[in-house]
Design brief:
Length: 107
C-alpha cells in the first residue's frame, strides 16, 4: 500500500481574511442558517418591489414567526424594511446580499 503524505503550502499573511470578515460572515451565515429564512430570502429576491403581508401567505408559518425570521435577516443586513402605515414592507438589501456572496466566495 502506497501512502502519500499531503503537504500543505504555508499561508501567506496577505491570503488570510481579516477577523472582521470572519465575524461578518458568521453573522450572515447564521442569518441564513434556517430553512425558513432561506425561503424568505428567495421569495424577496424573486420580487422586484417590497412585499408586505403576502410573505405570511406564502409561508407555512404564523405571522409572528415570519416576522421574527425577517427581523433576523434585517439585523444581518440582507433584508431591509420600510414602514408603510401599520405594516412593514420588506425587500432585499442588494448591498448586504452582495457582501454575503463576496464573503462566501472568499472561503
Amino acid at each position: 500500500m502506497n501512502r502519500r503524505k499531503n503537504k500543505c503550502e504555508p499561508c501567506s499573511p496577505e491570503s488570510v481574511v481579516s477577523s472582521n470578515d470572519d465575524e461578518a460572515l458568521a453573522k450572515l451565515a447564521w442569518a441564513i442558517a434556517h430553512p425558513a429564512r432561506v425561503r424568505l430570502l428567495r421569495l424577496l429576491i424573486a420580487k422586484s418591489n417590497c412585499v408586505c403581508g403576502e410573505l405570511v401567505e406564502l409561508m407555512p408559518l404564523s405571522q409572528s414567526t415570519v416576522s421574527q425570521h425577517l427581523k433576523i435577516l434585517k439585523e444581518a443586513g440582507v433584508v431591509q424594511g420600510e414602514i408603510d402605515g401599520l405594516k412593514v414592507c420588506y425587500c432585499v438589501n442588494k448591498a448586504g446580499l452582495a457582501r454575503l456572496k463576496e464573503l462566501v466566495a472568499e472561503l
